[in-house]
Every structure is written in structure tokens, then in C-alpha cells.
Amino acid sequence: MIDLEKKLQEGIHPQNIKKDEYMSNHTSFKIGGKADYFIKVETIEELKFVLKIANAFHIPFFIIGNGTNLLVRDKGIRGFVIQINFKNISIQKKAEAVFMIVGAGMTLATLSSIAVKEALTGLEFLAGIPGTVGGAVRMNAGAYGGEIKDVIVATKYMTYDGIIKTINLEEHNFSYRNSVFSKINGIILETTFRTNQGDRAEIEKKIKEYAEIRKKKQPLEFPNAGSIFKRKENVITAKLIDDCKLKGYRIGDAEVSTKHAGFIVNKGKATAEDVLTLIEHVKKEVKEQCNEEISLEILVVGEK
After folding, report:
1. Residue 134's closest CA among 220, 70, 45?
2. pLDDT confidence of residue 20
3. Which position among 190, 227, 255, 257 bears the catalytic label?
4. Which candidate in 73, 138, 177, 194 is catalytic?
5. What is the pLDDT of residue 2?
6. Which residues contact 302 (CB under 8 A, 6 or more apart)?
7. Active site residue 227
8. Which of 113, 149, 206, 219 gives 174 a disulfide partner, CB atoms 3.0 to 4.6 angstroms apart?
9. Is 297 marked active-site?
10. Which one of the listed residues 21, 46, 255, 297 is annotated catalytic?
11. pTM for the full predicted model
12. Which residues in the chain land under pLDDT 70?
């Protein structure tokens, strides 16, 4: 039988390979059972190497960024969890705009701070979203009236068999919290954003305003996975949940936030089962009381 850990160490630094690693250490929810192998990849060559092993030995794998918008089940994840840690950035100033080419593993907070430093406007709405570029592109992340689709030019990705491709804006097939990457076997490597030269003080002011709104309205003091349910057309999902008097409703240590009904928070030692049971209760109550179906915005993964 092959020694997978030894095989992985042929192309990955040992400190970036963790066996039987709790996913609670790698998700914003602080929830999740063990991954068989948690592997951090720093370069495209490392990613190709891990995919080659996975394909050769028929090992399932799951790609992760910053672990936001994610609930990992209590039994964990079989096979490889591959964390994309590409944090490269280059800035190209042209007559029509300024283009930022950014690695998929860079956090949106870091990207925003670089944009501020360079006095580049257009990405302010991303500042408080707690994820990476790759995750944001995959789900067309957005806030305060802006979405990834508004600022994107192109994305480079790798197929599961190691081929690198590039798609333009239209080919992303963006929709609300969705993109082509939920349908194709592709791992985002880097994305090009279109920005414009602006006034640094104005950019900083806008980001500060957004941060204050977020702090006031969202339960940032507790581990969470962001907005749990998708927005509905002409209906504010959080208001539906609030109208059903579900704020503060709790199962185990999972609670519908008293600050924002669209969030479920981990009050200490919540399990994935606590969260999933609470989600089903919320969906049932909203259906019975408001006659509305609501669907998940977060991704639920792992062994059932």
C-alpha cells in the first residue's frame, strides 16, 4: 500500500501537509471534522503535483480558500483538502484603466488594502468580505450594491487534469452568488480586475463607512460562515426569518444571530449537525409561516 504522506513530500514541503487535520481549524465557522490530508499549495507546480497524485490513485479532493461560506460536516472530508495559497499580484496601468492581476489565495482584505495604497477605486465593496479572490470569483461575491462581475476582466484556471485555461468576463456566466465554476471542474489560479485611479482619501472613507455598517449589522464577534441563505427576488430573506420570530433560536451552540437573522453563529462548541438541524428548522418555519422557500448560500461539504 502506498505511503501517501511520503509520496506528497516528494513535491510539497512537509510543514504544508497535515494528516487527520480538523477542518474546524480552517473554517470561519470553527466547525468541521477531520480531513484525511490537508495540503497547502504555494505554486502552480505544487498544485499540478498534488492533482497528479490524486488522479493516479483515485483520491477525491476538495479545494479551499479561506474557509468562509463553508460548513464542513462532523465526519470530515475524505481524501485531500487542497488550500490554494497563491498570493501573487501585479498592477498594469494603461490609458483606459488600471488592471490588477491577483492570485486566487489572496484575501479580499489584503487586495483592498493594496488598492487603497495605490489609490485605485472600484474594489471598495470587497473590503469587508472575509474570503479569498478565488472563492469570491467562484460565488460572485458582493456587498453594498457591488459584485465581482462588475470589476472582473478575466480568470485563469486549471482543469482537474492540469491544463491551464483563461476565460473572459462573459464566459464566467455570472449570476447571483454563482458562476461557471460551480459547474465545471476548474481550480481558479488568478483573476484580473479592472480598476481606475482615484482619490485615496475618498477610497478610504468609503471603506470605513462600509466597515462601520458591517460591524453594526453583522455578528462579527462570533464565528460564522457569512449569510446562510440566498437573497430572494423582491424579498429580504433575513426579514422573513425575523418575521418568524427566529432571532436567537438555538440548537446546541448554533444560534440564529440576534443581530442579523440571516446569520447563524457558533456560540462556542456548535457542531455541523447543530447548524444543519437549525437550518432545516428555519427553512420549515419560513415555509409554514410565510409560504416562502429559502435556499442555502453557503456550501455544505464532507462525509454524511
Report:
1. 70
2. 98
3. 227
4. 177
5. 77
6. 23, 32, 33, 72, 73, 74, 75, 76, 77, 272
7. yes
8. 149
9. yes
10. 297
11. 0.94
12. 1
